[in-house]
Amino acid sequence: MTSLPYVVTPELLAELEEKGARYLPTLELMQKEQTSMLASFQHGNVPRRRWERLVACEGRGCPNRTCSSACWFGERAAYLSLVAQAHDLLEQTGLPLWFVTVIDPRYRVSAGELRAMALDGMKQGLSRRFKHIEAAYGPLHAFGGIEASFEIGRNGEPYWGPHTHLVVAARCPEAELKAALRPAGDLPRGFRPIMMTPVYNLGNALSYCGKRTPAQRVSTTGSRTTRDCLKQPVQSRANLEYNIWLLGLRPTERLVMRGFRRVHGRLTLLR
Ligand SMILES: [Zn+2]
């Protein structure tokens, strides 16, 4: 069993907790989520061949070397084991740390069309921005992930909005960093595309960046105060769509990393 690529062990969870991480799943919770997700695939008539191999993923690990992002064991284990390493490496940089959320409305997709969300396009866009910051301010390290948030616009139309949560280590003035990461083009009036704060708890920020469960928000885009008014569990149909989307992604396909080298699951800093 030690040959499993990714395993969520009590030791890993304890290490993360010690590093300040919250949003940690328990093994019981992962099993519960996995079971209810597989049941929803069955009830939702998702072809069995698409999720059958996930039935074998249980207990402490994922036996599939190429399991999907939908697997609670494979995905959580892959992400969390990287978080534990990124935590120590980011601390070593000695660079100021920022917690950044980027919301780029150009990548929104309507409810029912989540599979068309352009993760690669978003990652390439971020990569260009990082390159500009590096050129002006030197080394930059970023670690985080892209989540799809189910939202209802003011017109009542539901859509999926990509939220990219990142911890960024860079010796770049706050305003410059914010400007560099700002999505391009015209944004809806009153829309806040970037939220940025200093990192107070690195372990917590890193574990938050890869959180799994989408929240439903009622967006007031277009008014002066764009904010999340409501947060509640998504409807089961949206939840099913979200899980089917993850089913087609590799365990760390939502991951965004810059300034790290990753070889066989081991991270090192690129300088
Ligand atoms: Zn798995």
Give the topology, please.
Blueprint: H1 10-18, H2 27-43, H3 48-51, H4 72-93, E1 97-103, E2 109-110, H5 119-137, E3 140-152, E4 158-170, H6 174-181, E5 194-198, H7 202-209, E6 215-218, E7 232-233, H8 236-247, E8 255-258, E9 260-263, E10 266-269
Parallel strand pairs: 3-6
Antiparallel strand pairs: 1-4, 1-5, 2-4, 3-4, 3-8, 6-7, 9-10
The structure holds zinc ion.
Zinc ion (ZN) is lined by residues 54, 57, 62, 64, 67, 71, 73-74.
Quick overview of this protein structure:
It contains eight helices and ten strands. The chain has helices at residues 10-18, 27-43, 48-51, 72-93, 119-137, 174-181, 202-209, 236-247, and strands spanning 97-103, 109-110, 140-152, 158-170, 194-198, 215-218, 232-233, 255-258, 260-263, 266-269.
Structure description:
The protein has about 270 residues and is α+β, with helices and mostly antiparallel strands. It has one domain (about 10-260). Helix content is about 35%, strand content about 20%. The protein is built from eight helices and ten strands. The chain has helices spanning about 10-20, 25-45, 50, 70-95, 120-135, 175-180, 200-210, 235-245; strands at about 95-105, 110, 140-150, 160-170, 195-200, 215-220, 230-235, 255-260, 260-265, 265-270. Strands 1, 2, 3, 4, 5, 6, 7 and 8 form an eight-stranded mixed sheet that branches. A hairpin with a 2-residue loop joins strand 9 (about 260-265) and strand 10. Helix 1 packs parallel to helix 4 (about 70-95). The two termini are about 35 Å apart. The relative contact order is 0.19. The site of zinc ion (ZN) has 8 residues, from helix 4. Zinc ion binds near residues 57 and 74.
